[in-house]
DNA sequence: CAGTGGTCTAGACCACGAG
DNA sequence: TCGTGGTCTAGACCACTGG
């Protein structure tokens, strides 16, 4: 039945026997592997497998979805290029995670002008502020909330070898991040996104950044150790979980005297 | 024989009969589809098929390389995700091109803050300068030339609806671009990379950008219609042809008052 | 050694585009 | 109607990892 030509989207049963009613009007054709991809995605969202876990083998999934191994493979391939899964030959396929993934700061594109990331050493983090407040209109709009909904605001400075490099301000929806405290943030080692995963079950999947050049205002200048008016990179990031649900709005000011934002185009 | 397990890299004959000496030491294993990908890439570099051309069908290539259609397919898939080929169902597979590709400015990430690209209208281009000179050390280094080698320098301003937005300065290696004149550049409609393709057979394949925030100096400020000291995005782009050969160094200053540099992370 | 992902094949059939 | 790319299958074998 999966062999059927009349594939209506989402017609593949996850587990049960075979009997998907034929749609006589099937304008939207969706390939099987796409449907399988969606089903796997659902399991990921539902938390059936947690970040870092190994998912069932291709053959197991093929049996479960009643399709061939090759079809499951195409679905997993797609999820792997989306960075949701990671394949490891000889071991298995794993749910991607921000933790234990040696590349710290997966979304940070700021690199030292000279020298490597390693010799730069780890970032020193200082939380400047962390409070609960009602979402301003613009923040609410971008996070898909209503104006006045509860949000968390976090402000912090990142420094390398004692030299401040980034000042950033985050807004997080109050619901999913209920219970996040300044202590948890301060005590934490490792990427913030890793903490979001382990403590709140929120996994960031992709993000969009809008970059501008701005002049430092007085407060920002003071925190970054530059003169007011100093040119800074303004990086506004909206990060999404599964299903393109916005989960974090972040506005960063980057010093770019000894560092640059690197981007690859193709 | 392509079925052989003892695949030594590059061992697949393009056309001739079968007789690849078995390497008894074969530490580097390269899958067949990778080798096919390399062979297709060579044909692209050699100009066997020009930008915009349709390449032979998957079955034809499979016959030519003595492998199955599925293997050719994987090779083409890889080249397509690298943006070197474009598949069009029902028509064929084509060599990617910067021309006739409705997205003008494939590498330009500057978008209007409000409204769409369409309502912004086409960019107005004004060549400020175009001259031949000896490469400064830094330019030579990045382009893989020797200091003092001939390079072309072009300086131009891009404006939208009469408002200047970008000032950029380009360096091109003198050899491949012999004969490029200010007239050709000024007369040209369409993306500069399209002109490079059609007139010089140089196709840009990927690029790396380094972005910083800077203050406008007097000259730059005047050309962009802002006050000196105004914060600008400095975008340094190194663009590559096939084989990761650097072919263009470009330094742009972007006004970001009504526009932003957009980047997608995943 | 067994179990996992990775490669390759051969063949069937579908969707799309153009004559 | 034909030729192209797109999907799906079934099965064989290889490469890597770990017990």
From TrEMBL, chains A, B:
The name this protein goes by in its record: GntR family transcriptional regulator
Entries under Pfam families matching the protein: GntR (PF00392), UTRA (PF07702)
Keywords of the record: DNA-binding, Transcription, Transcription regulation
Tagged with keyword Transcription: yes
InterPro entries: Bact_HTH_transcr_reg, Chorismate_lyase_/UTRA_dom_sf, Tscrpt_reg_HTH_GntR, UTRA, WH-like_DNA-bd_sf, WH_DNA-bd_sf
Domain HTH gntR-type: 30-98
UniProt cross-references to Gene3D superfamilies, sorted A to Z: Chorismate lyase-like, Winged helix-like DNA-binding domain superfamily/Winged helix DNA-binding domain
């Amino acid at each position: 039945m999966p062999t059927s030509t009349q594939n209506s989207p989402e017609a593949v049963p996850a587990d049960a026997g075979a009997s998907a009613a034929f749609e006589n009007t099937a304008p939207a054709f969706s390939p099987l592997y796409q449907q399988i991809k969606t089903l796997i995605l659902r399991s990921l969202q539902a938390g059936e497998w947690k970040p870092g876990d190994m998912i069932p083998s291709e053959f197991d999934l093929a049996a479960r979805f009643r399709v061939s191994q090759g079809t499951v493979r195409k679905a997993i391939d797609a999820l792997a290029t989306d960075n949701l899964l990671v394949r490891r030959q000889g071991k298995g396929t794993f749910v991607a995670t921000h933790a234990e993934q040696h590349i710290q700061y997966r979304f940070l594109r700021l690199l030292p002008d000279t020298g490597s990331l390693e010799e730069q050493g780890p970032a020193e983090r200082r939380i400047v502020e962390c409070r609960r407040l009602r979402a301003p209109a613009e923040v609410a709009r971008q996070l898909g909330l209503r104006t006045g909904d509860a949000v968390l605001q976090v402000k912090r400075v990142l420094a390398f070898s004692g030299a401040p490099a980034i000042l950033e301000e985050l807004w997080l929806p109050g619901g999913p991040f209920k219970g996040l405290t300044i202590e948890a943030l301060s005590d934490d080692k490792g990427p913030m996104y890793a903490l979001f995963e382990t403590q709140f079950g929120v996994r960031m999947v992709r993000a969009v950044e809008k970059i501008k050049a701005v002049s430092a205002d007085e407060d920002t200048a003071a925190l970054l150790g530059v003169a007011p008016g100093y040119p800074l990179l303004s990086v506004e990031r909206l990060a999404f979980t599964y299903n393109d649900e916005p989960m974090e709005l972040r506005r960063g000011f980057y010093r770019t005297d000894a560092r640059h934002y690197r981007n690859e185009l193709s």
